[in-house]
Structures are given as C-alpha cells and as structure tokens.
Fold this sequence. Notes:
Blueprint: H1 7-17, H2 27-38, E1 49-50, E2 52-54, E3 59-62, E4 68-70, E5 91-92
Amino acid sequence: xSKYINADELMAYLxxxxxxxxxxxxxxxxxxxxxxxxxxxxxxxxxxxxxxxFDKNGYIAxxxxxxxxxxxxxxxxxxxxxxxxPHCGAKMDGE
Length: 95
C-alpha cells in the first residue's frame, strides 16, 4: 500500500528543526526536499472505519456519522450489507 505525506506538515517540521533556516540542510537534504515538493500531489483522503449498529426499532446506523436506514432483522443478510456507508463513505469493516 502506498504511503502519502502532507508536504505542508513536512515543511513546517523541517523549518522547526532547522530553527527557520533551511540553508543549514545538507545538499542531499535540499535535493530530496526539492523532489518531494516537485512531485504532483495525489488526491487522497484518510479512510474512515466504522460498523453498522443495529437497534431494537429495526434500523441500522453508521457508527461514524449516525446515518440510519430501515432494515428488517428477519431478512438481513449480513454478507450483503453495504461495505461502505452511503452517507459518509466510511469503510464498514468493524474497526
């Protein structure tokens, strides 16, 4: 799985570490930083994890956003419940 970084947070961290003077970095560090900042940003979003919560009134709710949908318990096929919340996009893997 790819790992994504926040370039703005990286710059802020480096500036703090170098007491605001990035000229103190080695040539290799400047080169690496230049490559990172020149790379096109990916369109990513942190994955939210949730689970379906069943209540006594026959509803299921998303544990992340409380989106509710009606479901009759007798007819629920747990393997065919949505794997993602249709409201907030949380991955319903129970984590």
